[in-house]
């Protein structure tokens, strides 16, 4: 893979946000040379063999899921976290079968789990995060919660990297590019605490029975603008460096991921930025001298493929936008002027009455605080939806289970 | 890349048409194993470094062309054959600049040429194919003509494989998959006379402001049905083996390509089948004992990505459909019963009056009959649109021109 050079970055404490870089070639072959950043296939492979791809999934069709799976490089481990309907038609069973069949065909292994499985809730509670449970004693709904669950499973595998790919994607080739971009970015970042966030090239939308390739999502524009204002308020220099505030597609080292406090719902993606600013920004006292002595590079990469998915409608977008502003408003590192400007904007948008405060988004302790041994044992014993299809075993070859009970890493936080 | 096994094939003389195979994984990584066909990255690379990708282009936007180029693996050589408007806005100049800029960024070389360049016409005529010129003394319009020109240029490079990718493609990842499928198929086919034809997974279409993922093109259905009837008339067994009669996306060894007589316009793709049946089907006496002693495998591969391009309208489709039937009708190896059935069908479709014959499509001698030395010298001297941008030279590195005048292969046919 060949990326354009990134010349500029903005620093906020230990966090170093790199300007958006474009993908020049999906496959840079055997080329060497200057002027752009080449990540050879072997370097990509080295990262992929240590990478977990978590696919949050809600009510997607079999064909779409199959396509997404086919795009994930073989050496990555797939973890599907579903919150699909389990009514008269149990969509999770269809999804789990789809993953299993794919594993058989491709000779690979995977993990699948359902977010509302009572056994999963019991396991998460036992492992030390009762905050994730709702009044019914089940894991809360929400994308952030699915991502957290996926990260906990990823941590048990002992792999070093985690990437997220939404299941509602019509273009397997773009899934493929996302994974390659994660590997390329993590390779180039060169820090144990790195993050790669994707900005898609364009998003095809239907307008008057024609396709229009929109460059920026409605929600992303607002989120990015306010994250950049947050930075500018500190530096006194206007900036547009953040282009990936709402990036659903992103990856990071698990060393970083396990330290992050994830937010619930759609607040999860912008809150990753805010939590890095809070923990590693140097404004509040850091509890983590290791990270502060290192650095936290955030690479932002613009893919070549359009992001082509189902249209979830306006309500979804408005929700995402306001959740980003809520976390920004309530962050202890957001300066008063930015907070006031957010209030004014939300009132102006009709999202808030004068005198009201934005609601607080739910946030969770770092996944690194979970007791992974307990988590695994409880999942194994109680979570009926917890599956580990192994295509090697199905083909009569030696087992290659994604999680080795004897090798689960100790808690890190 | 991992492909599903192909168990069945149908033979017609030396031509062996393999049943459609699906892509299981775009990237099969370091895996080994049975049950499916794995082509490792190094094997793909070996083919790519000997492959030319010809991109026929007509009035596409810069962004779309850039995307297509970015999806073509680095080690493939790009040849853009344009028939774009050169009016007050010279679209070819924009295209050539786009290719040049891409070559500079990616450190690779390419060839571009315009189909209506008088210098190109003069060169083709000098090289021995005056049939390609129209009454104005220019190369005829038509996709087949662009493909032929691309193949002649490819032959001059001394590379061993040629693949075609249409420029009107919105998904760089699908271009990438096409090229990888070409390489995988040509690797697996294992004959110096091989062809790989692509059947795309689906084609997104707009219907009532919604997207519908159509599985089969309207024109392809008809073409495939009649090609299969052609085969069945010989074997007395109905068959559905041919699924790629109109495949615009296809690749072959140049050893095969240089022997084929290409048809003009949109007849080119179905006529490749018919010409193989005529030359290597064992019905007519073959002039080529080499090929007959070998075999001509045709691999048909279903990609994972949707084929997502601009809608060219109904007229285009009807034209393609009838051109396929014209070549089938007039082929000396089509049996009388099939010919009669084609006539009846065309009359029924309103494409023909009772008592009329279908028109003959134009066909050309094999590209292997061209004098490539003469062709190169004339292009170099007279064709103003003939460019060979070299990203290596632009970066101050040693030149890597696509064509080495001293190494142009001798004519083969």
Describe this entry's structure for a reader.
The structure is a homodimer of 413-residue chains. With 413 residues, chain A is of the alpha/beta class. In chain A, the strands form two sheets. In chain A, strands 1, 2, 3, 4, 5, 6, 7, 8, 9, 10, 13 and 14 form a twelve-stranded mixed β-sheet that branches. Chain A has a two-stranded antiparallel sheet with strand order 11-12. The two termini of chain A are 34 Å apart. At the A-B interface, β4, α1, α2, α3 and α6 of A face β4, α1, α2, α3 and α6 of B.
What brief labels describe this structure?
homodimer, 413 residues, alpha/beta, Spore Coat Polysaccharide Biosynthesis Protein SpsA, Chain A, 12-stranded mixed beta sheet, two-stranded antiparallel ribbon, 14 helices, Osmo_MPG_synth (chains A, B), transferase (chains A, B), EC 2.4.1.217 (chains A, B)
